[in-house]
Amino acid sequence: MAFPILILTAQIRSTILLYAALLTPPSTLSQRTLSIFFLPAIYLCHLYTFSSPLAFLSVLHCFWSTHLLLFTNPREDFGLICRSKFKSRNGETREWRESYPREFRERFWWITKLLLSPRMIGWETSAPANTPDASKSTVSIPKSKRRTSPSSKTTPRLSPSPSPIPHVKNQRLSTWLLERFILATISFILLDATNWWMNHDLYFHNIYIHEKGDIDTGLWHNTALWTSFLNDLPKWVDPLAMRILVFGIQEYAMFNYLHSLLAIFFVALGKFGIVGEFWGSSYNWPSLFGSLSFVFERGLRGFWGCFWHQLFREMFVGPGKALTRVLGFPTGSTSRYAIIIATAFFASGAFHALTLPTHFDGIDPRLRAPNSLGYASFFWFQGVCVLLEFLIGRLVKMVMPEKNRGTWSRLLFGMVRAAWVLGVLYLSAPLLIDEVVKVLRAMGLRPVFLFSMAERLFESNVDGAGLESTPIIELIDPPLTRYLIGAATATEGLL
Hints:
Layout: H1 2-23, H2 31-45, H3 55-71, H4 74-77, E1 79-87, E2 93-98, H5 104-115, E3 123-124, E4 138-140, H6 173-200, H7 239-271, H8 277-280, H9 293-298, H10 300-307, H11 313-327, H12 334-355, H13 372-399, H14 407-443, H15 450-464, H16 481-490
Antiparallel strand pairs: 1-2, 1-3, 2-4
């Protein structure tokens, strides 16, 4: 119980310090002075929590505090987009920008909304050009500047590309809630299916795995008759590809499921007036993931910048934007884009490496500890590939401009981009998955619900018909037989 209490205490202290920093008006302390005084104190609050199993909370708070106090200036540049509950005569909803408030109470709630907005949905992160003192202004926000619109040309982004924030359609609330409920249901089924697979694929929880080549070993299973089809998979099925697919679907489904539940909960509360417009409006709960069509349009940049969730995007691109702003690089320049991409993926790798648990108490000594550097190298490799893709794309545009490409040419380019993304993920995913699986072997796999019940029902029917339901274990490496049987016995309680 020592670590949870320590982490909770660190979170409370650091949050109080962050509130104190942002509650201080710019007229009292400048942003530079603010970061010098408060950031070291916030870091010291988390000094003894980085090695705990819940280090994710400490690392996230440190990164988010650094973004708000060092790389950006929320008190002078940020503005909260407010919407009127009533529409005008022409059917439009009035919107306006609420900058850093003067009154303490309003300032406190303004900061609370800011701290709980990692995607910056419903916020403008740059000072209005037509306002000399942004910290004292309240200006109307035209449609072209809405943060929730993907076609907005004024929305800050890494490059001239579609915004990663999905478009929010004008639809009835009942339709929106139904769509989110269906999405949550599908995500739960996918999550349960991938958890079921992991519980039957011994790679994800066995202790005998080889020192190298973990993820591409054969599909060894501890499985009953109902799941014996896993042993009958065609020879051309690549175990590495299957495990990457299962892991990717699991992450996609888990984020979608949690986000959908939160969205349904708060929007439903907003419908009954329990929470305000900021928390209870469907405008502030757009889809967490974008469309896969971005992969065909922009390749790896579309995958990471538009399709995958953007929970930490602002936090990762902040250092690069601040650096290019200090160095004076013009907006839209290749050098500026390269610096932002390099720093964003470097920060992403460092963030994920620091949040990876590496020390566990009371586990089998034969289990290998996760490698934080190997975990981070996956994200650093993505950054290198994104820069390479960007440079090659520039060269291709010089030879064959987009306006000269026909339908078949666009289709071919889209297929090449998709193949490129699949190839990069196939080569680099083991760097990520192998380290995560080491954590799963130590902490335990996620439970199975629907598929576990269906499996028990099928096995009871098979037993009733007089057929034996015995585990099927393929012994591929005889010297490992003892470990294989021991792992199968140890994991019976998970199935």
